[in-house]
Design brief:
Heterodimer with OSBPL9. The structure is a single chain. With 699 residues, the chain is an alpha+beta fold. Among the domains are: 7-109, Pleckstrin-homology domain (PH domain)/Phosphotyrosine-binding domain (PTB) (PH-domain like); 294-416 and 446-618, Porin (Beta Barrel). It starts with 6 loop residues before the first strand and ends with a helix.
């Protein structure tokens, strides 16, 4: 009680991706068990901007730095806060924890104890004693003895009390100690001999034991949140309790950015020396290069990623890596093994999302704002299937800063005359079906050209910009994506932070959209890809919007790759189209007039992109930059691919270090910083606007 003091002061609060961190004035009300915040100290007498109940909350110092911490309330709401220094963070964290413990215990004292469930520890031996060293299988079976007593039918199950949670916490602490000793014992084994530290069974035990402790710890905290919520009443409608980062400090042997142990580089091949000797990008010309589509040839590369051989052969490396990762760890700076890589760069993967240019070009042909929005949703949902190469979850190359990728697609004008759009009966009869003519009367080619360019504009954080346009159809799309990857136990999650904008210039419409999260599941067995999260598509001018949900598979039952969505007219709040199905199989569109349309993604025609031959590409174009890594992967030479990959990464680190020492900013080539985003340097909407202005002046 001596430390139960009310404190107040300024902290930085993370609001969202757009607004970022903002200073707010926080007040800890110990008597009420509340954490409140205001815009500033002067507005303290007004109603708080936000309030958190601290009973049942979890206060967690962050691993990101020494200033940040989080407050996870029992309702599921979270505040991410940052103090000015480590000392101030410790002051706030300790006071918040004292207040939280006091009010959580106060709730428990006002409720009867639980009689229906008892816990007993099978082994009371010290985690450090020799007697505990028994076979892992015996420990796994007999470690806990949980007894359940059947309640009379119709009686309500009493609520678990904090003292029982303390018992569980004590057991988990002992389990954590034994798991830590297990890890230490495995790592102390010799590197060679009959039983080594790299034995596959021991590595499996090491990885799964850590994942099990992480999972148990998450379950324990969810139990705490549910307990506190039950004391105050049922959770508010729509509230979900999500998985939290681990609060038990598991052994952390692996630091972000730590180099892997690869064989010593002896007699490097000429290609590696070439990769390391390429001049610093800013010393090369950074002037944007105009790519002539006539120099591009239809792509004949077809690297499907269905081969599991390398993954099976390198399973011990995967297990060793996983056993050293921490739940929630940012993988941005983690060097991943080469054999899990796809044979393409992330920039090229973004281009493969455009493999149905007929659906993309058909968007602007919609005869009404409603139809154009529906067509865009159809194109958007069909883009992810072809963007993935094969069923196995592999990772594209992390682009090097300054890396670019160029390609194009040619679409016969006749293929759009019949129109692959949403509802053929609703198309405008006056739609142009013949190629346009230039001012001299010469007929243009009988195809439309969609040009694509992507550039890695930032290394930390890793941000890519990409842009596509079709001049003949007066439409273009500009997007920037920041990929944030995290280790989630037996899976890896990738958040695609950023925004894209589709411009239909003839209609003066802009469609903003985001991208779903991606997950690599079952990374210890047969890894597969799952999309998840909610994305929104909006057109401010027309008032139409779309909400799309990518559903992750629940623990029990449910379908894989399920997606649902609806298109709405916001002014009238009416749904004009609903969609459901699987994003990699069949989609069902139901329109407001009662009609239904099915799209089988596996049968959609794919238009091959056109790419310049390697000899005509610049040194920082994706395929030329990664050509030696790709060739080695095709040949199955993992060691050689690793050597080439490391040479590229070392060069990038050296260049980054040199820029930091000389305070030289990075110069992008095709994209310009625009607020929080990146915009192509010569977008079609600028030339279109200039042409319209010139035409108006001439009239």
């Amino acid at each position: 009680s001596d430390h139960m003091e009310n404190i107040c002061g300024y902290l930085m609060k993370y609001t969202n991706l757009v607004t970022g961190w903002q200073y707010r004035y926080f007040v800890l009300n110990n008597d009420a068990g509340l954490l409140e915040y205001f815009v500033n100290e002067q507005s303290r007498h007004l109603k708080p901007r936000g309030t958190l109940q601290l009973a049942g909350a979890v206060i967690s110092p962050s691993d990101e730095d020494s200033h940040t911490f989080t407050v996870n309330a029992a309702s599921g709401e979270q505040y991410k806060l940052r103090a000015t220094d480590a000392k101030e963070r410790q002051h706030w964290v300790s006071r918040l924890q004292i207040c939280t413990q006091h009010h959580t215990e106060a709730i428990g004292k006002n409720n009867p104890p639980l009689k229906s469930r008892s816990f007993s520890l099978a082994s009371q031996g010290s985690a450090n004693s020799p007697g505990v060293q028994r076979r892992p299988s015996q420990n796994a079976v007999s470690f806990f003895n949980v007894g359940h007593h059947r309640l009379p039918t119709g009686k309500r199950v009493p609520i678990m009390q904090p003292d029982h949670l303390v018992d569980v916490r004590e057991m988990m602490s002992q389990a954590e100690g034994q798991q830590r000793d297990l890890i230490r014992s495995i790592e102390c084994l010799p590197a060679s001999g009959h039983l080594t530290s790299l034995d596959q069974d021991l590595l499996m035990l090491k990885a799964t034991s850590m994942a099990t402790m992480n999972c148990l710890n998450d379950c324990f905290h969810i139990l705490q949140l549910q307990h506190a919520s039950q004391q105050k009443g049922s959770l508010p409608a729509g509230t979900t309790i999500s998985w939290l980062e681990p609060k038990i400090s598991l052994a952390n042997h692996f630091k972000n950015g730590a180099a892997q142990n690869f064989p010593a580089e002896i007699n490097k091949p000429a290609s590696v020396r070439e990769e390391q000797s390429i001049a610093e990008p800013c010393q090369l010309t950074r002037e944007p290069e105009e790519i002539n589509p006539d120099e591009e040839l239809e792509d004949v590369c077809d690297d499907k990623e269905d081969d599991l051989g390398a993954v099976e052969e390198q399973r011990s490396v995967i297990l060793h890596l996983l056993s050293q990762l921490k739940l929630g760890m940012d993988l941005t700076r983690v060097v991943l093994p080469t054999f899990i890589l796809e044979k393409r760069s992330l920039l090229e993967m973004y281009a493969d999302f455009m493999s149905h240019p007929d659906l993309f070009l058909a968007i602007t042909s919609g005869s009404s704002p409603e139809e154009r929005m529906i067509r865009f949703v159809e194109y958007y949902l069909t883009s992810f299937h072809e963007g993935r190469k094969g069923a196995i979850a592999k990772k594209p190359y992390n682009p090097i800063i300054g890396e670019t990728f160029h390609c194009s697609w040619r679409m016969p004008t006749s293929s759009l005359a019949t129109d692959a759009g949403t509802n053929s009966s609703a198309h405008c009869p006056s739609e142009q079906t013949t190629p346009p003519k230039d001012p001299e009367g010469q007929a243009e080619p009988d195809y439309y050209t969609v040009k694509f360019v992507a550039e890695q504009v930032s290394h930390h954080p890793p941000v890519s910009g990409f842009y596509a346009e079709c001049v003949e159809r007066n439409m273009c799309v500009n997007a920037h994506v920041w990929t944030k990857s995290k280790f989630l136990g037996m899976s890896i999650g990738v958040t695609m932070v950023g925004e894209g904008v589709l411009h239909l210039l003839e209609h003066g419409e802009e469609y903003t959209f985001s991208l779903p999260c991606a997950y690599a599941r079952s990374i210890l067995t047969v890894p597969w890809v799952e999309l998840g999260g909610k994305v929104n598509i909006n057109c401010a001018k027309t008032g139409y919007s779309a909400s799309i949900n990518f559903h992750t598979k629940p623990f029990y039952g449910g379908k894989l790759h399920r997606v649902t969505g609806e298109v709405k007219q916001n002014m009238m709040n009416t749904v004009v189209c609903r969609v459901q199905g699987e994003w990699n199989s069949v989609l069902e569109f139901t329109y407001s007039n009662g009609e239904t349309k099915y799209v089988d993604l596996t049968k959609l025609s794919v238009t091959r992109k056109r790419v310049r031959p390697l000899e005509k590409q610049g040194p920082f174009e994706s395929r030329r930059l990664w050509q030696h890594v790709t060739e080695s992967l095709r040949d199955g030479d993992i060691d050689k691919a690793t050597e080439h990959k490391r040479a590229l990464e070392e060069r990038q680190r050296n260049e980054e270090r040199l820029r930091a020492e000389t305070e030289t900013p990075w110069c992008t080539k095709y994209f310009l910083k625009d607020g929080d985003g990146w915009v192509y340097h010569k977008p079609l909407w600028k030339t279109f606007s200039a042409a319209q202005t010139q035409q108006t002046d001439s009239n």
